[in-house]
Amino acid sequence: MPCRAEFPQAKQLQQQFSSTSGVVFLYVSIDQNQVAWKKLLQDDTHPTGVHINQASVEQAGSLWKPYLLMGIPRYILIDQKGRIVQANADHPSSGKVAAAIQKLLL
């Protein structure tokens, strides 16, 4: 799966910013199989951070519409005020994400 292929680089980014206040990594799953999704979260290959499941656009509290979620994998950079800075941010494996995060912290 394309999302899981990015896990190693996502974990590296998290480690790089682990002591930086104001940086949160949110992972939104659209997995319909809740059992499989929860099992994945117990595996040490996935990145840590905030994990939520948004299997439906109509789900209460859905992030689909406010954050323009259209497909996976999708990476979005959001500033500390909750505004979308990059709706189609680079994938962690691009090598560009750390600099983009640093720029938001200035």
From TrEMBL:
- Which protein are we looking at? Thioredoxin-like fold domain-containing protein
Q: What is its main location?
A: other
Could you confirm whether the keyword Disulfide bond appears in this record? yes
Enumerate the UniProt keywords alphabetically: Cytochrome c-type biogenesis, Disulfide bond, Redox-active center
This entry carries the following GO cellular component terms, namely: cell envelope
A Pfam family cross-referenced in the UniProt record is: Thioredoxin_8
Q: Where in the cell is it found?
A: Cell envelope
InterPro entries, per the entry: Thioredoxin-like_fold, Thioredoxin-like_sf, Thioredoxin_ResA/DsbE_sf
Positions of the Thioredoxin-like fold domain: 2-84
Listed under GO biological process in this entry are: cytochrome complex assembly
